[in-house]
Design goal:
Helix content: 25-40%
Strand order of the largest sheet: 2-3-4
Number of strands: 5
Number of helices: 3
Shape: globular
Strand content: 15-25%
CATH topology: Outer Surface Protein A, domain 3
Largest sheet: 3 strands, antiparallel
Length: about 90
């Protein structure tokens, strides 16, 4: 999958409860025992996953929760981070 349309649909985590986690300082390692995949996430990416694990949301709703009065550069960075999580299979449409 490439260039997912972030603006449509609702998003949630994909098998987040099955992942093994270990956090050091600002980084979290996620390991999926079923697939053998390992992911290294920064604190911002982990926060996105945790929010979507609590409650599925559209991209716009997620932006509103994180940054009610944000500017475009921050939104662009968030969209890139979100897209990367989609492409790795940690976030999926629900």
């Amino acid at each position: 999958m490439s260039d997912p349309d972030l603006t449509s649909g609702r998003w949630g985590t994909c098998n987040f409860d099955q992942l093994l986690r270990e956090t050091w300082d600002e980084e979290t390692f996620l390991f999926n025992p079923a697939s053998g995949e390992t992911h290294l996430l920064n604190a911002a990416a982990m926060h996105l996953l945790e929010l979507l694990e609590e409650e599925e949301a559209s991209f716009e709703q997620l932006v509103g929760r994180l940054f009610p009065d944000t500017d475009k550069p921050t939104l662009d960075a968030l969209a890139r981070q979100f897209e990367q999580l989609v492409l790795t299979g940690l976030i999926c449409r629900v």
